[in-house]
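I hope you will forgive my troubling you with a question about protein structure. The full record is reproduced below for your convenience:

——
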Amino acid sequence: MPLEVMEHFNIRASDMEATKDFYCDVLGMRVGERPPFEFPGYWIYLGEIAVVHLQAADSNEAMEAFIGAKEGSLEGSGAIDHVAFSGSDVRAFVARAKAHDTEMVHRKVPEFGIHQVFIKDPDGITIELNFRGEDARDFDPDS
């Protein structure tokens, strides 16, 4: 029984609307179908997969019964350092991120021809975006 694909990560967002808008407006994902749970939230899709599940940081009885209580910090990534996605068209992404005043850190991995962009969502979770190909190899964020 080998693993096939990562399906989703769940965020207990301090501002669920701002977090939803970040993943949709900055990263280009979309809100999609979600089961009728007895607590508010969104499922945010990348293609046909709901890769981000959002729920409010404030617990209620229904949420705690279904998911469990969360202990510790609800900021940043906790023990997880970052979440990564593969992207295309680094120039278009950088323009989109700039249009939303998103701070970016750029790195190169020349051995693999990768240009990386690191950003943070409204809850402080680091998102890594990996761009490959000649366009990404030649991209200079300072030009």
Remarks:
- DSSP finds four helices and eight strands in the chain.
- The mean pLDDT is 86.
- The longest strand covers residues 49-56.
- The chain has two domains: 1-72, 75-143.
